[in-house]
Amino acid sequence: MAIEIPRDLLPADGRFGCGPSKVRPAQLEALIASGSTILGTSHRQAPVKNLVGSVREQLAALFRVPEGYEIIVGNGGSTAFWDAAAFGLIERRSQNLVFGEFGGKFAASAGAPWLDAPDVRKAEPGTLSVAEVVSGVDVYAWPHNETSTGVAAPIQRIDAEGALTVIDATSAAGGIDFDATQADVYYFAPQKNLGSDGGLWFAAVSPAAIERIERIAASDRYIPEFLSLKNAVDNSRLNQTLNTPALTTLHLLDSQLRWILDNGGLAWAASRTSESSSVLYDWAEASSVATPFVSDAAERSPVVATIDFDDSIDAAAIAKTLRANGIVDTEPYRKLGRNQLRVATFVSIEPDDVRQLTRSIDFVLENLGA
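Structure (tokenized):
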């Protein structure tokens, strides 16, 4: 018999996915209100270029970027950026910290045949790997937040002469506070905390990173035009992209940035995600059948909470029951293969909805064996 969760236990909004994230209704209303001023118009004309400029300015304000840093944008998502970095950012060799699926994907791109084999530092899922200065490495790279496991890493520049610190921020940007001076490249796609859609990548880049990009572009290395970071720098300075950008993505992002900045910026957003994730971690630690997957509390992500269950509990059955009641996308990362739930606590998600989620899970647990 299907379990029906009482309405007074249900979240007001049941979207907790770690992939494309919850988009606030106000963002959609703003998009609709834009009518024909943006969608279906030229990306080389003022309305779209002004929108790109607005996004770049707001990202710079949100991240409190130092003087000389630039916000650049390119076609494609983080997957495209990994390949672009292999062509135009890594000079000889990278060190890649791998503590989940996505750090591993960048490490694979860094294994391009024109580069020396990357120095890959791999940790067991649920734990964190640590950078170490190695001679000949000119890029040190790791994710700020690992979406697949719920591990978050500190952002601190690696003290190695001539090397760049490159951070994958896709699931962290806009939801975890950090010091932008500690990274040379802080890159991301905007479909997590920034409440947008796919099709574009953005990066906050330092003067040293721009110098590296321009120097490699001027060398004899073959770089596809679509994956040229020099093209991205040049076009971004004109508030445009090489090819037509994803306009809906830009508009949703612009609205989300305005909302976060109006409420207090990155410090406010980080406080909100920390509140939401703490609800889940505290609930799991108080439970007799659940526990946080990441054992070291200092390494637990504030934006992606992974919760393990005892073998006596079928987490897949919990997720299936939640989905049947309108609470969606709490399944674990498919390749991790654990008996767990994975819950996004991105900035758009209301902390009170997370509290309701825990009440709904408790109800399901009480009734699964009934």
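The chain has a mean pLDDT of 97. The CA atoms of residues 87 and 322 lie 44 Å apart.
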